[in-house]
Write a structure and sequence with these properties.
This protein is an alpha+beta fold. It has one domain: Ybab, Chain: A. It contains 2 helices and 3 strands; from the N terminus they run αβββα. The two termini are about 20 Å apart. The model has no long low-confidence stretch (mean pLDDT about 90).
Length: about 100
């Protein structure tokens, strides 16, 4: 059983590393703001159209929308992949079927 738990931990760690390579985008303002984050919810890039620099309020609003969109997508992928890794590595014990 301990070997199975170590295997589960190893699968989870592998999944975390792999999720660092998965990127998703969030967009706002018809693409005037683009944000890329990893599936581990780390912001990688932010691209802003130059015409937004003169409108601070719009820029702030679009940044919030784009970040929230990207983070929501990243969170969905993260949760799905981590649940899959946990399920695949968990021993078949009564009461632990919540991952299945």
């Amino acid at each position: 059983m301990m070997a199975q738990l170590k295997n589960a931990q190893a699968k989870i760690e592998e999944t975390k590393k792999r999720l660092d390579t998965v990127q998703v985008e969030g967009k706002a303002g018809n693409g005037m703001v683009l944000v890329a984050v990893t599936a581990n919810r780390e912001v990688k890039t932010i691209q802003i159209a130059e015409e937004l620099f003169s409108d601070k309020e719009a820029l702030e609003d679009y940044l919030i929308l784009a970040l929230n969109s990207a983070l929501k997508k990243a969170n969905e992928i993260h949760e799905m992949e981590m649940a899959r890794a946990a399920k695949d590595g968990m021993p078949d014990l009564p009461g632990l079927d919540m991952f299945k």
